[in-house]
Amino acid sequence: MAIIKAKHLGFCEGGRNSINSVIELANQGERVYVYGELLHNKSVIAKLEQLGITFLEPNPDVKVDGKLVIRAHGISNKLKQKLALNNEIVDLTCPKVRKIHALSKFMESKGYHIAYLGKPGHPEAEGTLGNLTNATLVTSLEDVKAIPHEKLAFLAQSTASLEEFNKIANYLRAYKPSSVVFNTICDSTLKRQRSAAEVAARVDLMVVVGGKNSANTRQLYEICKKHTTTIWIETPDEILNYKEEIEKANDIGLTAGASTPDEDIDTVFERISKLNS
């Protein structure tokens, strides 16, 4: 039996930097409040709460007695300006998300209707679309076909599915030649998706580790299950619920979302090894 880790898995640079930044603020004695979840991982959130970091339900009227942190997913400029009226802001928006904000706003100013591939209700999508007045959130090619405009600028949430993105991009190039396409999916996301697919094609069972509300982890799960039997766990303890599947498998693959810490990945690997020994 072999356990094969995907070449690219776990924390992305933006997630790691966000965690390090809020820990540094807390260690400096600051009262730290995060606007929403810093990232989509319950175990990481719990550990940060033990350091005194508070995670707030998003509320545009919030007023805190410390630093108010904007998470890597970002928020709209209008919301940020409102929050800054009553709070000292620490903006940890991922640089790649900032670029999507700037590009979408620029293309809108040039007369393009923005078609944005994203997950409804996701904070990154809400932040990007909150800056725009001439935009449509799409989740599939069918959504794009329903847009009446001919001159589209097509962009994507940084954690979107490359497969779905390419379907839409190919359609626009063929049937709406006045449109322009920008692949704004994060490089880290693309590397994780490709390496997960490569491993899944070689194994009997694939294990995906990451938060159930994580968009990029869901994409990994959807990709892997097209190739092989796939289980999705949120915490290392959950792997014990799949003892029978692990014992039967000859080769097992392992990948993890961009909000999954190294220690969780290592623990899952060790437990799979023991269950399959």
In short:
With 277 residues, the protein is an alpha/beta fold. 43% of the residues lie in helices and 18% in strands.
Main attributes of the structure:
Cobalt-precorrin-4 Transmethylase, domain 1, 3 domains, 12 strands, 18% strand, single chain
Give a verbal description of the structure.
With 277 residues, the chain is α/β, with parallel strands linked by helices. The protein folds into 3 domains: 2-10 and 187-276, Cobalt-precorrin-4 Transmethylase, domain 1; 13-94, 3-Layer(aba) Sandwich (Rossmann fold), CATH 3.40.50.11270; 96-181, Cobalt-precorrin-4 Transmethylase, domain 1. The protein is built from 11 helices and 12 strands. It has helices spanning 13-27, 42-50, 77-84, 95-109, 123-129, 141-145, 162-175, 187-200, 215-225, 243-248, 262-275; strands spanning 2-5, 32-35, 54-56, 67-70, 88-91, 113-117, 135-138, 152-156, 180-181, 205-209, 229-233, 251-256. The strands form 3 sheets. A 4-stranded parallel sheet has the order 1-12-10-11, sandwiched between helices. Strands 3-2-4-5 form a 4-stranded parallel sheet, sandwiched between helices. A 4-stranded parallel sheet has the order 7-6-8-9, sandwiched between helices. Strand 10 (205-209), helix 9 and strand 11 (229-233) form a beta-alpha-beta unit. Helix 4 runs parallel beside helix 5 and helix 8 runs parallel beside helix 9 (215-225). The radius of gyration is 20 Å and the shape is flat. The relative contact order is 0.16. The model has no long low-confidence stretch (mean pLDDT 94).
